Amino acid sequence: MNAFVWIDVSSVEQAAAELAATRGGQSGVVSEGGAVLKAGGLDLLDQMKEGLIAPGRVVNLRRAARPGDVHGLNEIREAPADGPREACLRIGALVTLQRVADDPLVRRLAPALAQAAAGAATPQVRQVATVGGNLLQRPRCWYLRSALHPCKKKGGGVCFAQEGENELHAIFDNAVCAAVAPSSLATALVALEGQVVAVGPGAAPRRMLVSDLLLAPSQAGPPGSPTSLVHDHRLAPAEVLTTVEVPLRPGRRSAYVRAKQKQSFDWPLVEIAVSLPAAGAAQQGADPKAGADAGPRVVLGAVAAVPWRARDAEAALSRLARPLDDAAGLRQVAEAALRGARPLAHNGYKLDVVRAMVIRAVHQALGGQNLGGHESP
Amino acid sequence: MSQEREVTTGIVGVDLHREARQVPDDAPADWGASAGLKHVGRRAPRLDGIEKVTGRARYTTDVRLPGMLYGRVLRSPHAHANVRHIDPSPALRQPGVKAVVVLDHVLGTATEEGEGSGKGPTPVPQLRYAGQPIAAVAATTPEAAEAALLHIVVDYEVLPHAVTAEDALREGAPLVFRRPVKMEASAGGGGAGGGMPQHGNLRGPKRQGRAGLEPAEARRRVEAALAGAHAVVRGTYLTQVQTHSALEPHGLVAQWSSKSGADELTVWASTQGIFSVRDELAEVLGLKQSQVRVITDYCGGGFGAKFGAGNYGVLAAKLARQAGAPVRLCLNRQEEHESVGNRPGSRQEVALGADREGRLVAIQVQGYGTGGAGAGAGFAGPAQNLYRCDNIYTEESDVFTHTGPLAAFRAPGHPQGAFALEQAMDELAERLGIDPLELRERNDPLPARREERKRGAAAIGWQGRSPAGQGPAEGPGGSLRRGIGVAQGVWYYLINRDSHAEVRLHRDGSIELLSGVQDIGGGIRTPLAQVVAEELGVSPQQVRVTLGDTRLPPGPGSGGSVTTASITPAARDAAHAALLALRKELATVLALAPERIVLGPGGQIEVGGQAMTLPKALSRMRKESVVGSGERQLDYTPPGQAPSPGRSPGRRGVGQLGGVHFAQVLVDTATGVVRVERVVAAQDCGRPLNALLTESQVHGGVIQGLSYALFEERRMDRRTGLMLNANLEQYKIAGALDVPRIDVILLEELRGRSSTDAAGIGEPSTVPTAAAVANAVYNAIGVRVRELPITPARVLAALAARARQVTPGRPR
User: Fold this and answer.
1) Crossing angle, helix B769-781 and helix B792-806, to 10 degrees?
2) Cα–Cα distance measured from residue B654 to residue B667, given in angstroms and rounded to the nearest whole number
3) Residue B641: what are its φ and ψ, rounded to 5°?
4) Of A214, A228, A280, A225, nearest to A252 (Cα)?
5) B671, B738, B781: best mutation site toward chain A, by most A Cβ within 10 Å?
């Protein structure tokens, strides 16, 4: 690991200024000697130890969560509707995964998010890992994580996973790069229509849906552009993610399930988050703020470079009057979730896992039981 | 001189009886069953537990010496290459750098005839795997050393590689070795002699018939027996490469000094064998054994991969000499995975034949192991030794690949062999329509395993087991299926006679035990103290135990599960000898005939008919101390039978150790995820000296075994020849939530072999686990997974293959 300068900042604005003062940034691509933002530091340390990045300056955000912090970096709270903005659950970027998992508000208002945080990594990691860091961590593809593999996502010319060891890789949109999105929170947040708030140097906070935050390979811009394949998300190099907001929809039910090979310290083989509007809400347009997109959401994780909205499954699910009593209908929903899947040589089994887990997620959302297989809650 | 004595033998609670043995005249008395003892056999907590949990215990990675430098190793980034030219001098000019050494001879791989003479274009040997050490730097900080590695100028001639067995066996595949090879065994076993046929990357086969039979004849008989058998099962089994992944990495700290003008080298090493580290360093550096001192206070696990100095040890010693300062060189996790050993993979074709009564008439196993750039990747131990059968034939070859070499790993070859053989036995039982336990009952000659089957079956609830694939469906969509499976293991009773101990009794009543055995994590200090305490009639806490230093009386390397069986009799004999010395001293002081001083069991002392406590007796001494020495004697033998010579680890010993594991699994047939819910592990290890520590060893063996069954696998990229998961995130190891309830059933099996009658447990406890899990998975889902690890993908593929068979043409 290289030597670097450690910079404690006392505010988000100062962090953004420090990041702007040096080339580089938090977007996964750090030029040698550049500045990088640190929250929990888990993924950052991994990347530095692997020799993937060699930042010259590490900007530590953790001290910015202090009394008087206007961004609520370390807070979880229910925010009432404010003009055009609907009521939401606000979670600061420095809140740890363990707090998300344990917090009564999150568990009540956004169960899918609490469930996604609960089984991630290990208890030790969850005590340190943050919401912001979880959303912006780099994918865990073992080719990307190996400094000796000059893969496309590192600016090289090859996606080694295409012909290589790809059983953990993407089954959707995988022709250019087959890495899967690592963030379980992102999968849940897309299902919950969550958004992030980011602050850039000298700029007003901007909001972006989590579903727009992460970049799919098929949408990658040309090399050198801010949305090229080497980037994982759309934040600018000096932008600081401060908050996650989950809109509050009365009566909405949500759930998250994952299938893991190991029950301790493992990444999901497949994860599913679903959210279902209050009975009748979608059909009757009871929630005008949700607009046209107010139906159920079925989001697949660990199957693509971004949380994968299974729109055909959503449509099929919205047609089911009583999903829990309609096993055949739910099987069709699960099958529809796989439309467009193109498994690689060794990850075809993920299709089966998706089929099973989609059904379990719907059951869990509506029945309230944890049906994530035989995983302990 | 020896005498004939009656000793206690048999399995406690089964067939305990007395038998005659030839025993040395000065040997201590027979202990009988442990129930009659005060300390031995008890569940005594580790004496060093507090030191360990408070962090006071000093491991090698904790050693910091004044002026110490940090070493880092330059390793091959290529799976196969020659070094055309190397210039280490720019690295020497980097800030903080004090020494640079280029490695001229690689340890730990197989070697070609005549190799290592340094006759190539550069002093650097051929690079046969990514991660092979090339050179090393010592600097004032680890970061400076790491940075300086980039300034060693290397011109690589990159060559084509083959990192999988399939690629290595292809016509025209790049060769790992061009000439026939051999490989040195370590104290943990393994090794491969010279003189084997070698074609391309295939070396062998090594053919073995049943003991005493020509292989060709054995093969003919096996084939004839299979042709005439009532029932035959055949199957191909694949096992993966598992890395040792000990918690503490390999490493040492080397410090040179000068004593009376002669060089001396002191090293603190994370090792299973301080004397083998000493001997390898002495040999490589041209020193006398007495000029090298090796110290290991504590070791964070080795599992067979920590014998000898290793390339890192040689590099550290050379760097320290060049720099004139102590050098610490501890490996990181990537280096651990890539370059210091593994359990080789295997492909085994098994055929078993049985007659109508379920008696085995043929056992045949043929295949190859893949130990990378190392040789000796066999697996035939279980096939050769587990069952009584007139016709046994095995064929094992090595397939060389451009990957890190194998090293001895907890029962080398046996978990692989058991995985194949014991699944085949399960299948054979079903073919014959008899219970798997009954099939073993009819073919297994070992009394210990018979008892283990009986007790284990009762504990797991074998009677309530459903037929394969017919258990009740549970959970979401009825996708969960539960299953129970059984498998057996075999290991060998091995001892190492280089096992010495000294007991010192001091006039102030204090007691010391000194021995150059090292604790690799099993906790040998505690049973040593218990044994001495039992003999002296004191508490284990009163015995100060000093271990892990080659300046102490030589102790055994901890490989082959020999440690307890080897060193504890020496310790008891030393304590007994110390008592005899005390008696002599008391006789002199008190002017009594020595016969008037009677030594009873448990340290009782009677002087002239009056009981005297040990402290009292010691206080009467004129000398400050009396000293007793013990060394591992040959095993006691029945009258008329010559003492059996001690066997070196890695060879078949004088008797077997068993072990029967029962696993209960829950399989999610929709996702393929397997969870082990429970393991009952029934084991024998002679006399268990400390049930608590013995159970801990078995827990470790079971956890490592189920981790091997379900998770662990070294993943290589065929195209780049690099390891993809050289960390502890993507290299999957069982974690807390993956560990099931484990019930350990320990037999107390006395054989009258030594003054403690202890045998090993480390290796036997991991041999059957993966096979038991595999058989349980079969019982749960009715379809067999013959490849390790048993991943969700493989479970789903097996279920899908069966579904296609059941309903042909059904689209999926």
Assistant:
1) 40
2) 41
3) -105, 130
4) A280
5) B671
Q: Say how far apart CA B294 and CA B298 lie, in whole Å.
A: 12
pLDDT tens column, B551-580 = 999 999 999 999 999 999 999 999 999 999
Task: Check CB contact under 8 Å for B143 and A122.
Answer: no
Outline where DSSP puts E strands in B42-184.
69-75, 81-87, 97-102, 111-112, 133-139, 153-158, 181-182
B720–A148: do the CB atoms touch at under 8 Å?
yes
Complex ipTM above 0.90?
A: yes
Is the pLDDT at B117 greater than 50, yes or no?
no
Is residue B63 within 8 Å of residue B133, measured between CB atoms? Answer: no
Tell me the DSSP string of B551-577. Answer: TSSB---S-TT-HHHHHHHHHHHHHHH
Q: A367 contacts in B (CB within 8 Å)?
A: none
Task: For residue A269, list chain B residues with Cβ-Cβ distance below 8 A.
Answer: 671, 792
Which residues of chain B neighbour A118 with C-beta distances below 8 Å?
Answer: none
Separation between Cα atoms, residue B571 and residue B528, nearest integer Å: 7
Contacts 24+ apart (CB under 8 A), A101-104: A101/A126, A103/A76
User: Which chain B residues are Cβ-neighbours of A164 within 8 angstroms?
Assistant: 717-719
B80 contacts B158 by C-beta, under 8 angstroms: yes
State which amino acid sits at residue A307: P
Which residues of B25-152 form beta strands (DSSP E)? 69-75, 81-87, 97-102, 111-112, 133-139
Interface touch B722/A167, C-beta < 8 Å: no
In this predicted structure, the answer to whether residue B345 has a pLDDT above a threshold of 70 is: yes
Q: How far apart are CA A42 and CA A55, in angstroms?
A: 15
Contacts 24+ apart (CB under 8 A), A326-335: A330/A358, A330/A359, A330/A362, A331/A355, A331/A359, A333/A298, A333/A358, A333/A359, A333/A362, A334/A358, A334/A359
How many residues in total does chain A contain?
377
Q: What is the tens place of the pLDDT at every residue in B374-394?
A: 999 999 999 999 999 999 999
Q: Alpha-carbon distance A101 to A78, whole Å?
A: 16
The conformation of residue B55, written as its DSSP 8-state character, comes to T
Q: What is the C-alpha to C-alpha distance for residues B414 and A330, in angstroms, rounded to an integer? A: 47
Angle at A177 between CA A172 and CA A183, to 5 degrees: 70
Assessment of whether the complete model's pTM goes beyond 0.90 = yes
C-beta separation of B754 from B630 below 8 A: no
User: B791–A160: do the CB atoms touch at under 8 Å?
Assistant: no
Taking the alpha carbons of B138, B144, B146, B149 in that order, is the dihedral positive or negative? negative
